Amino acid sequence: MNLLVPTAAEDGEFHGPSIAEFFPPGFLFEGTPFEINRIMLVRFIAVAALILVFWLGTRRMRVVPGRFQSVVEMGLDFVRVNVAEDLLGKTDGRRFLPLLTTIFFMVLFMNLTGIIPFLNIAGTSVIGVPLVLAIVSYVTFIYAGIKKSPKNFFKNSLFPAGVPWPVYIIVTPIELISTFVIRPVTLTLRLLMNMVVGHLLLVLFFAATQFFIFTLGGWYTALGVGTLAFGFVFTVFEILVAVLQAYVFALLTAVYIQLAVAEEH
Questions:
Q1: Rounded distance, CA 28 to CA 239, Å?
Q2: How many CB atoms lie within 10 A of CB 141?
Q3: How many domains does the chain have?
Q4: What is the pLDDT of residues 185-234, one digit of tens each?
Q5: What is the C-alpha to C-alpha distance for residues 106 and 84, in angstroms, rounded to an integer?
Q6: What's the CA gap between 244 and 236, in Å, rounded?
Q7: Over the chain, what HEC string results?
Q8: Residues spanned by the domain of 69
């Protein structure tokens, strides 16, 4: 099983990345609903790494934390302060903190697999994980709204107060689509497309580097050095995107929950 993304064909011609890389063949349980392919393996590794990091960081909690415990606590405090309590307040923030923390770190770890050697692809670059997380966010938003106001949640969402009745003919369909359709779709596509584009760019630069240096050689090596430099720059940029997308996904989930539990509902 080869975890590396192919970069240049043996015929001496350059072949850029293609969408087929996101649909690799299975190597375990092939032809069954439990088929495992390269991207599924990457997801398993990301989840295992996430569990390991938090187990190591919390197994021996101390009043004066060590370095590793401090790093884990900083990550947890970041989500608690900047995502949960900042938008939802202390009461609702603590109530939904486990969900928001899980979403943030799950997205983060799966995003970062895109720049780890021998993995080289994000676990969120295929629609399954972004879609599942978007559905979880969407269901939580609906649950929070119904829990807060069982009778008026859908009414207030679809029929905003202060709007003249004839205008509801236009406003209500817009609210229905924007609130109950567009939100999970945009959550899914925003994360998915960022990871897909990031992977394609990195593969393009490093594939070009291999092609210029090892296939063409000569003065083309200078071009290979240039594409290699761009590859490293975009790798750093991809780390930033991985963190930012995890933050945005958790933040938007908190925003939707905050809108659901707002007093007017």
A1: 30
A2: 23
A3: 1
A4: 999 999 999 999 999 999 999 999 999 998 888 888 999 999 999 999 99
A5: 16
A6: 13
A7: CCCCCCCECCCCCECCCCHHHHCCCEEECCCCCCCEEHHHHHHHHHHHHHHHHHHHHHCCCCCCCCHHHHHHHHHHHHHHHHHHHHHHHHHHHHHHHHHHHHHHHHHHHHHHHHHCCCCCCCCCCCCHHHHHHHHHHHHHHHHHHHHHCCCCHHHHHHCCCCCCHHHHHHHHHHHHHHHHHHHHHHHHHHHHHHHHHHHHHHHHHHHHHHHHHHHHCCCHHHHHHHHHHHHHHHHHHHHHHHHHHHHHHHHHHHHHHHHHCCCCC
A8: 19-260
114: tokens are 């895109």
Looking at the domain assignment, is residue 172 inside a domain? yes
Compute the distance between CA of residue 70 and CA of residue 57 in angstroms, rounded to an integer.
8
2 part of a folded domain: no
Query: 7 lies in a domain?
Result: no
In this prediction the pTM is 0.90
Tell me whether residue 13 is in a domain.
no
C-alpha–C-alpha distance, residues 137 and 142, integer Å: 9
Give the pair of three-digit tokens for residue 149: 């106001």
> pLDDT tens digit string along 26-79?
999 988 888 999 999 999 999 999 999 999 888 877 777 778 889 999 999 999
**Are the CB atoms for 21 and 38 separated by under 8 Å?**
no
